[in-house]
């Protein structure tokens, strides 16, 4: 059946007759999670008692495995197998793709004796219990031939090159514009390597149903690429891998790909003929998965004396793994943020023998806004302008690089309303003026921007003889609220109470959706759900008017109303359950699909926000307390006030972490990360956060999708750390351009 593609058509979600859209609906799966009964991938009960796998990580950053001594491990209690590159089961070659339409290629484990990074799995132990496997893993003796690794980013900045296939973007003549500007700023910011620190580590439970069908429960953000990658690695048909990811304890980009746990669990289960569980440990997560790479960002701003930007440049240097191909695009966002006739943006990349860099929540913006939004604060001070006013004076009419119109841009409104709500007029523009006992007190602000886009997706809707609507989609919920917003969209579309909706997601056998990432999840999955719902409405209406037993018989199907769990035509009505039980007792199932509108690329489309922050800085110790933080965001129609607000405040808390505490320190001797647990990698906790609030403007972006919704999952972190840094400067008069702003840098 066709999808809903007419963007002007009113639809039930936009009409929102019941008021369910936008409501603070509690999390669909919340009770399961808070009572510990939601089975995460490692906790799924397999059909028979499982074996447990433990990985042995490499203890060097670069070189090769010279020998593997397994006799002691093999003799250890309960051990069932010990694998390394010497004896691992055969898998497809790296990158192999039998199915040309696979969304991922083979990713074999132990296919080489080369060690490319500290923590790379080099051996694997299977045993009857986790304890026995862990003990035996400690008995595997590995000798290495070591090469000298290059792991210190700041030592090799000169070697950085243009990332393959990329060019700098220059508009006008930046160098001339900058040289001629009456007011200039040229400063460099550095951000450290960061880690996702999901509460749930990457983990898999696997078993086989016969020799050719593999069942896995794993923790991933995208279902199809994980399913395809496993199938390609094992040489199976894609449909012979049944992959489920029902509950996920955080992703943040780090589970946008799969790791060795998935392959090893599936291989182990096949070789042992019994289910196998494999998890990364917390320490292994830091090295064995991906991280946000460090950056060096040079910002140059040229302006007139009345605060019009004439030249703007952000150049980012970053790093990725020697054999990797990831670039932290920290300069991209500023191509759409402020007007300036002369512009230069680009990236430089250096390869290191560190673990793999990859996407982490708001890749690009999260790092890049930490420089540009502080540069704007410094420029405002140079000009004697309020930082909000400086930004308003450089608000572009159209996208400053492409010239495309904005789909909808309410950045100024976010800043103005935020300033008023926060009491920004009480800020003393001169730093180091407000003292309360031992504390210097100050305020700062920053803008927020994050791109918005939609991907193709499918969903199915069913109705059964009890009138229950079931949404099915290969979508994931990484803690963001996908289950809940899909339930709301379904209830509103079908005119049934929330309690009459079931949601099934996280399964490779359901209609495919791209999953969770890039803050496209709710809009993408939701648009396909709306399409499926509209198709089910049509099918139900036609069933009713064609059924002589229905009070709606003979009516116009286009006029059928869906409300209160039933259908109506004027005063003729019946319940969904009555209709389906009588006319389609097996139930009805239809699919729907959605894709970006044909003209989607004609618009410059983003989500926006403004952060306001008040901090106190201890004059003696340099300790920073975030007293108050307010974000005002414009992100399209909000489906669920509670889950959207939680995404935004969660992002803001990440921003506080970026500003004050987070960062991994590579050890130049071993290429390891020195801090590799949650006691030493400091993510802000409840007591670190003062009065925190996120406000969402009442907004509908009718260029985004038929519902006018956009994403919020990555917007909250964009700019949040810069607002904290700017507040610190206003409080104590110290500009720190090297994140995180730890107390030693303030005293
Ligand atoms: Mo995200 S960092 O695009 O999952």
What features would you describe in this structure?
This protein is α+β, with helices and mostly antiparallel strands. 24% of the residues lie in helices and 25% in strands. Strands 3-5-1-12-9-10-11 form a seven-stranded mixed β-sheet. The chain has a five-stranded mixed β-sheet with strand order 7-16-15-14-8, sandwiched between helices. The chain has a five-stranded mixed β-sheet with strand order 18-19-27-28-29, sandwiched between helices. It is globular. Bound molecules: dioxothiomolybdenum(VI) ion.
Q: What are the key terms here?
A:
single chain, 747 residues, alpha+beta, Aldehyde Oxidoreductase, domain 4, seven-stranded mixed β-sheet, five-stranded mixed β-sheet, globular, binds dioxothiomolybdenum(VI) ion
Quick structural overview:
The chain is an alpha+beta fold.
